[in-house]
Amino acid sequence: MLSRRCVLHTFNFVRYSRHAVSSNKLYNFQPLLENNSRTCTATHNRQYSLQSSVESLARTQTGLFKTLSESTPVEYVQKFLLTFHDTTGLPWWATIVCTTILLRTSVTLPLAAYQYYILAKIENLKGEMSLIVEELKKETNMAVKMYHWDEKTARGTYNRSLRKQWNNLIVRENCHPFKASLLLWFQIPMWVSLSVAIRNLVYMLPNADLDAKLTFTELTVGGFGFIPNLIEVDASFILPVSFGIINLAIIELQLLSKTNSPTKIQKFLTNVFRGFSIFMIPIAASVPSCLVLYWTTSSAYGLVQNMLLLSPPVRRFFRIPKTDSELQNPYQHIVNGVKTRFSINK
């Protein structure tokens, strides 16, 4: 593979040669990359309405898309991708895979472990809280007899005392439930930023300068196997289908790793996420393969991450407290759950 500097010199030679030849007006020289070369991304056979709509939406550079494309986080992520690619000399498919693994290992894995840490602490507090609840009930009943409280006064005082005691436990253990949501506050923006940054590379945004055109050219030959051109969609459907299957596997893993029966709300949300995972398959089949490669790699990492954090030794490594709901043999529990589900379906 040519270095970026070599490609730069080659591109400059072609540009100046084009100018010299065209000045003689003897040839109708077509440049290798015109300013509108972004239209080349649709050079595939699967032209259908959904793909055209998704591609048109992906090209949009107005409103929210323009704001995201030119935002500071996306700019930094885009520069990081380019720097990582130039420094390592890896092809673009490997650059996308390696940066995804690197960012998820350094950002989302520690936050996921911290989420489990907070949730475990909260679960362990519930045992202590149950004793406090019994004590508060006794004290409330005594107060009703001594001070002749009516039901409204007794219930209000009891609820206020209950909230105060719970808050005291939360402060003591430093495990506010909001801290368990930190993973989402980092993972979702990172996913969006990386997706938009890769989109910028594909469509030479926000500025179609020489470097952007060179990156575009590198992406056209930076794939592997069934996706040699990362600008085009995955005609084999391997990545889109894998993306959907992995997301469904994550949902089922979360469901099978629980010891308690899911509530109605949990069942509803599970079905919503299942439907969304299936809905994303045709979307993934309509965008450039480099984008789907990132999505699939990120989801695969998430599946492995969730499986690892079920293991008691891994949980102890991350100092996640032991709880009553923790599975001693989580993987066997999941296998048994799968067998039970299939036997019921039969």
TrEMBL record:
Residue ranges the record marks as coiled coil: none
Membrane topology: Multi-pass membrane protein
Major subcellular location class: membrane
TM annotation in the entry: 182-202, 237-256
Species in which this protein is naturally found: Acanthoscelides obtectus
InterPro entries: YidC/ALB3/OXA1/COX18, YidC/Oxa/ALB_C
Organism domain of life: Eukaryota
Protein name: Membrane insertase YidC/Oxa/ALB C-terminal domain-containing protein
CDD domains assigned to the protein according to its UniProt record, in alphabetical order: 5TM_Oxa1-like
Domain Membrane insertase YidC/Oxa/ALB C-terminal: residue ranges: 92-308
Keyword check for Cytoplasm: no
UniProtKB keywords: Membrane, Transmembrane, Transmembrane helix
GO BP annotations, alphabetical order: mitochondrial respiratory chain complex IV assembly; protein insertion into mitochondrial inner membrane from matrix
Location(s) in or outside the cell: Membrane
